[in-house]
């Protein structure tokens, strides 16, 4: 019993040291701001009105700033555990005004439909992007040309995780419905809950994936049916216009303002290029993508969403 408890505690400490995040129900812009290290305003509010974010334009021609740390050209930048990125570096191949982070995407066999060996299942770890090996039946055929790590199941007993009446095999991963932005792995010691160290929030790695877009003042774009991580960004252009909300329109009329950007400031505002939007104001949809809907909901970033990419 003591040995089992020690193993669980040791894994929990490893989990913390790896920097894996807590398990939360955060989605959309709250999750976005949290990953960028922004501070909620008012502090501690259940329904934040706005956030105060670190500057995203600290990078220079010869350096990149990620999570407040400065990297020089050519420096390696380590991605969070479990993220499908590798070989991230601060580079400036086009000699632009600001350097940017360039990463390689990890290409896991399972992401490309590569079939798993017969009588085997893939094994996963909470801190790895790709499968870490195979868990096979004792009678599973061996492949001398396959260097994949293989563990054979016990003929007497096999560990499973029972979560909400659903059984998961040891080393398998699953995604709990009540935690849409988290992943879990069944492992020895699992207590039937969707908490750390069995589960962790899926990191978006926004600063690594969209370093240039953040520096250019672009807005995150989410898929309407999945509010976990932004999948692309909308960047400012000369054609952008503000579509005023009824509240802002009334304020503009009252102030007898002649220009959209001179509208009375109604509290915190979203910034998009040279445009300032009050909460509820929208950006005009680009002609090339009428499915894109962008609105100022929680400043300072405009929130964009679309049905499909």
Order of helices and strands: HHEEEEEEEEEEEEEEEHHEEEHEEEEE
Structural class: alpha+beta
- Poorly predicted runs of 5 or more residues: 1-19
Oligomeric state of shown chains:
single chain
Give structural notes.
The protein is of the alpha+beta class. Helix content is 14%, strand content 27%. It contains 5 helices and 23 strands. It has helices at 2-17, 28-36, 206-209, 211-215, 246-255; strands spanning 39-41, 50-52, 63-66, 69-72, 76-77, 85-91, 100-105, 120-123, 133-136, 150-152, 160-163, 166-169, 173-174, 182-185, 199-201, 219-223, 232-234, 242-243, 269-272, 275-278, 282-283, 293-295, 303-306. The longest helix has 16 residues, at 2-17. It is globular. The chain starts with a helix and ends with a strand. 25% of the residues are buried. This is VWFC domain-containing protein. It comes from Cacopsylla melanoneura.
Which properties best describe this structure?
single chain; 309 residues; alpha+beta; three-stranded antiparallel beta sheet; 14% helix; 27% strand; disordered N terminus
Structural topology:
Layout: H1 2-17, H2 28-36, E1 39-41, E2 50-52, E3 63-66, E4 69-72, E5 76-77, E6 85-91, E7 100-105, E8 120-123, E9 133-136, E10 150-152, E11 160-163, E12 166-169, E13 173-174, E14 182-185, E15 199-201, H3 206-209, H4 211-215, E16 219-223, E17 232-234, E18 242-243, H5 246-255, E19 269-272, E20 275-278, E21 282-283, E22 293-295, E23 303-306
């Amino acid at each position: 019993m003591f040995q089992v408890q020690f193993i669980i505690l040791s894994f929990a400490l490893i989990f913390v040291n790896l920097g894996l995040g807590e398990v939360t129900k955060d989605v959309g812009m709250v999750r976005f701001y949290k990953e960028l290290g922004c501070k909620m305003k008012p502090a501690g509010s259940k329904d934040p009105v706005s956030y105060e974010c670190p500057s995203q334009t600290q990078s220079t021609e010869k350096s990149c700033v990620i999570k407040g740390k400065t990297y020089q050209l050519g420096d390696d930048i380590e991605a969070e555990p479990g993220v499908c990125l590798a070989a991230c570096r601060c580079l400036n191949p086009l000699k632009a005004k600001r350097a940017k982070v360039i990463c390689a995407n990890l290409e896991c066999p399972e992401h490309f439909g590569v079939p798993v060996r017969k009588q085997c299942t893939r094994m996963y770890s909470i801190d790895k992007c790709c499968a870490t090996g195979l868990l096979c039946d004792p009678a599973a055929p061996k492949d001398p040309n396959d260097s994949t790590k293989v563990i054979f199941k016990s003929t007497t007993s096999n560990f499973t995780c029972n979560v909400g009446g659903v059984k998961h095999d040891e080393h398998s991963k699953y995604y709990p419905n009540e935690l849409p932005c988290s992943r879990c792995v069944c492992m020895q010691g699992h207590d039937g809950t969707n908490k750390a160290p069995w589960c962790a929030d899926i990191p978006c790695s926004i600063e690594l994936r969209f370093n240039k877009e953040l520096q250019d003042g672009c807005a995150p774009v989410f898929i309407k049916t999945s509010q976990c991580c932004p999948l692309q960004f909308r960047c400012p252009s000369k054609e952008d216009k503000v579509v005023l909300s009824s509240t802002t329109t009334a304020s503009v009329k009252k102030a007898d303002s002649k220009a959209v950007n001179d509208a009375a400031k109604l509290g915190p505002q979203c910034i998009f290029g040279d445009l300032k939007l009050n909460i509820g104001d929208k950006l005009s949809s680009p002609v090339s993508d009428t499915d894109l809907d962008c609105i100022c909901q929680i400043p300072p970033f405009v929130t964009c969403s679309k049905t499909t990419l």
